[in-house]
Amino acid sequence: MQRQFDDPEFKRVSRRQILKLTPLVALGAFAIPQAQDYLLGRGTAFTDWAAAKLFRTGHLAPTYPDSALTPLNRFKFNSYDTNTPEIDPDWSLEVSGMVSKPGDYSLDDLRRLPKISQNTRHVCIEGWDLVANFAGARMSDFLKLIGADPNARFVYVECADDYYESLDMEAAMHPQSLLCYEMYGKPLEAGHGAPLRWSLPTKIGYKSAKYLTSFKVTNVLTQRSYWGDQGYSTYADI
Amino acid sequence: MSDDEKKAPASAGVGPESPRSQEARPLTVAPEIRPSPGGESTSAGTAPPLPGWPEAAEGRHSAAPVPAAEPSLAAPVPEGAAQIGSAVLQPRRPEFVAAYEHSAVVRFCHWLNAVALLVMMTSGWRIFIAFPSFGPKIPEHKLVNIPGAITLGGWLGGALQWHYTFMWVFTATGLIYVMYLVASGEYKVMLFRPRDIPGVWPMVRHYFFFGPEPKQTGPYNALQKLAYSTIVLCGALSVVTGIVILRPVQLSGLAWLMGGFHLARIWHFVAMCGFVAFIPGHLVMVALHGWNNFMSMVRGWKKNPEYL
């Protein structure tokens, strides 16, 4: 489109056109420190919300042949747990919350459930990834064993190293979500969370909590996630 | 442009809106020839045609800046004008031609996307610092050392929040922009096609090796078309690979198409490199082409575009 103008008209038209762009000024809110945390929190929450819409309960994470495995000694475990916590020799998992059979569950109780071994990709929030072998009981089987209320919203775990983590019930019921007690065919090493850890192929790495000591089925979370409470996504789906 | 400057005749492109254009056409060719006073009843001014007029390519560069215009300030009230008191009301007198180069949708998307891209790149660099490699974690080979000072977010978690928030702005504006271009047909002026290939080298020669300036025949030259088409592709690549990096399991099919999580991360980085290459070139070109050209992305209209 072309047309002729005289100067006043051009100024008038220009002004009107520039005014159309004023909504862009709203972006300036991100520069205000007090508003910034809130807005970024909302943005991240919106991303989590969209991810939850995307979550497909029956969709399995890809699994890989043994040839694709990263050797166990090249499986980095995070700096948070370089100081391996002391584990009680009489270790048991303390189960509580919305379950019909609360109490202490031993490793043998878990071993009696069907054992699942799978080679899945472990994706770290930092950007690295590797394929590793995890084996253990399906969390869905364990939830059945303890008589968990299927309408509960979350599973919440605490760890021997004061780490804590939560999981939405959908992900907990996912057939590849494991209460893992073996990696690469051997009992868990100290660095990888002995005696019991989560392995969650549908979640980012930090959700797979290690050194589990308590397991709670609940609708209310007072703490959501060790890293989630510091600014990472709590939902953390991949 | 001052009021004294006489409206120059329009080029053929101006069309029916300038009924007097034919009449006035000779003026552009020979700036020194002026109409006799009152020769055009509706034209109050007596200024010569403007430097900078479309078809007056010669006059544009040779004409002195409006020397003859000065006397018109003192010129008598022309016949066609009404006089009320001391005010002289003159019939509207078009002064220059302008082209509407960028619609409001395009300008809105451009600036919103520009801000989002800046946030995505600077926060992306911070995310990359957490693992600046494409190899294994053990042993880790640091690929590039990005100074933290040019990044956004302060730490990985903060940068991810910026990234997770502005990815929506970046994607939405990019989608709206592309859909608008396709729906309106405006993509035709900027899409790089095989027939534009011969025009690339002359532009490169002109910009980088002081070659002659190729004649501009449209809003965008071949090199611009190449740059803008490529950068839209970079944007699409960064979005698709970003989705795969974010959801490699839920969208495992798409991840497989991209060669998996690991390769998607590399392509995501490549798209970023495309932006790093494009932005300085784009900014330098905008600076070299001046305020009027820059303002066309703000107000939509470009005064006296060089291709008319």
* Computed Rg of chain A: 24 Å
The CATH class of the largest domain in chain B turns out to be Mainly Alpha
How large is the count of helical segments of chain A?
Answer: 5
Number of helices of chain B: 10
Q: What does the secondary structure layout of this molecule look like, with pairings?
A:
The complex is a heterodimer of chains A (238) and B (308).
Chain A: E1 2-5, H1 7-19, H2 33-54, E2 93-97, E3 103-105, H3 107-111, E4 115-123, E5 129-138, H4 139-145, E6 154-159, E7 164-168, H5 169-172, E8 178-183, E9 186-187, E10 197-199, E11 212-218
Parallel strand pairs in A: 2-11
Antiparallel strand pairs in A: 2-3, 4-5, 5-8, 6-7, 6-11, 8-9, 8-10
Chain B: H1 21-29, H2 57-62, E1 82-84, E2 87-89, E3 96-100, H3 104-130, H4 156-184, H5 187-190, H6 197-209, H7 222-246, H8 252-257, H9 260-288, H10 290-299, E4 301-303
Antiparallel strand pairs in B: 1-2, 3-4
Helix pairs in contact in B: 3-4, 4-7, 7-9
Protein model, in words:
The complex is a heterodimer of chains A (238) and B (308). Chain A has helices at residues 7-19, 33-54, 107-111, 139-145, 169-172, and strands at 2-5, 93-97, 103-105, 115-123, 129-138, 154-159, 164-168, 178-183, 186-187, 197-199, 212-218. Chain A has one domain (57-230): Alpha-Beta Complex (Sulfite Oxidase, Chain A, domain 2), CATH 3.90.420. With 238 residues, chain A is an alpha+beta fold. The longest helix of chain A is centred in the N-terminal third of the chain and has 22 residues, at 33-54. In chain A, β2 (93-97) and β3 form a beta hairpin. In chain A, the strands form two sheets. In chain A, strands 3-2-11-6-7 form a five-stranded mixed sheet. Chain B folds into two domains: 12-96, no CATH class; 100-303, Transmembrane di-heme cytochromes, Chain C (Fumarate Reductase Cytochrome B subunit), CATH 1.20.950.20. Chains A and B meet through β1, α1 and α2 of A and β3, α3, α4, α9 and α10 of B.
